[in-house]
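In this supplementary section we document a worked example of the pipeline. Step one takes a protein sequence of length 69 as its only input; no multiple sequence alignment statistics are reported here. Step two produces a three-dimensional model, which step three serialises into structure tokens for compact storage. The input and output of this example are shown verbatim.
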Amino acid sequence: MGKKKLNEGLFGAAKKFSDAFFDGLKANVTNRALEKVKQNKSIPPKIVQKMTELDKAAKELEKMLKDLE
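The serialised model returned by step three reads:
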């Protein structure tokens, strides 16, 4: 019985680590993409502004969902 709990704890910890790792990668890719869009002067400012707003809204929603856990 104790060994089963230990295994479940290890798998849970590994899942949390991998989730955090891939969330970090996703955030880095999103941030880099937004920076490139901001630097690209051929993209209209309204589109850049909307992309920034959407990114902010997605982060707020993700935080709210995590708070529910």
